[in-house]
Design goal:
single chain, 281 residues, alpha/beta, UDP-N-acetylmuramoyl-L-alanine:D-glutamate ligase, 6-stranded mixed beta sheet, 40% helix, disordered C terminus
């Protein structure tokens, strides 16, 4: 059977985040990707200039069309800007019995632009967090969901993850990319487990789409049948490589995207070189 994952998220017209990042990630990790678009954004590497929400009833129509035909192995949920969109997605998940759900509570873009309306936050907490297998907030998002200061230590990160579990989350991957120090540390916290995922912190301005990419990489792993911890490890390695390779791209003049297809572009380049007898062969 072909592994299939669905992203339910907003469209990024510049291609670095949202639906576009998710589909690139699914493909790079060997998973067929389908999509349900919740919002259209006018944005580039410098910021978001406009948002047009998809009507909630049409979000539901997309969900029904996809899930009634495709055998979906995992779902990633990203940008849901309104309470009505959250309600539509919740009802769609329930109709189609989806349980392998990765929820990325997208609240603010890399550029600082708000993507989730304030009145929708409570709905997100009440309806979607309890339905997710894992939620993937970064440090500011975790703090905003809990109404607390941003965590500044691993101990504080674990504490906030445990509080999110009390809100109904089955597991929480709290991301340390906004932190400081030589390592970027994420913690995958379950009811009785903690997995520490560390990687060297990479100095780059090209970080657009990192959160979307990580959550969709986890969904890809789940779609392939990996246990959550293994899916999280694979996702961390993939995102770290995509960030490290980001400066090989020249995209825009602001926060450029990570390099989702770095593994494939490198292979393609080597094959072309071999074909033309380059590198002394």
């Amino acid at each position: 059977m072909t592994a299939i994952a669905v992203t339910i998220a907003g469209s990024d017209s510049s291609g670095g985040a949202g639906i576009q990042a998710d589909l690139k990630t699914f493909s790079a990790l060997g998973v067929y990707g389908a999509s349900v678009i919740t919002a259209l954004t006018a944005q580039n590497t410098k910021g978001v200039t406009g948002i047009r929400d998809v009507p909630p009833e049409f979000i539901g129509e997309q969900i029904d069309a996809v899930f009634s035909d495709l055998v979906v192995d995992a779902v990633k949920i990203g940008m849901l800007s309104t309470a009505a969109a959250i309600q539509a997605v919740t009802e769609g998940l329930d109709r189609h019995g989806q349980t392998k759900v990765v929820l990325d509570p997208v609240m603010v873009a890399t550029s600082g632009d708000r993507l989730l309306q304030p009145d929708a936050v409570e709905m997100l907490v009440q309806l979607l967090i309890p339905r997710a297998l894992v939620i993937t907030p970064n440090l500011p998002e975790a703090a905003a969901l809990l109404g607390r200061p941003i965590a500044e230590s691993e101990h504080a990160m674990r504490g906030q993850a445990e509080r999110l579990i009390l809100l109904g989350a089955k597991a929480v991957l709290i991301k340390g990319g906004h932190g400081t120090g030589a390592e970027s540390i994420d913690l995958l916290v379950g009811h009785d487990t903690v997995l520490r995922l560390a990687a060297p912190r990479i100095e780059t301005q090209s970080t657009h789409g990192t959160g979307c990419t990580l959550s969709s990489a986890i969904a890809a792993g789940l779609a392939k049948g990996l246990p959550l911890q293994d899916a999280a490890r694979e996702a961390k390695d993939f995102v770290t490589g995509a960030i490290a390779a980001a400066n090989r791209l020249t995209i825009g003049s602001g926060h450029g995207p990570v390099h989702h297809l770095h593994r494939w572009w490198e292979r393609t380049g080597k094959k072309k070189s071999d074909a033309f007898g380059i590198n002394g062969e």
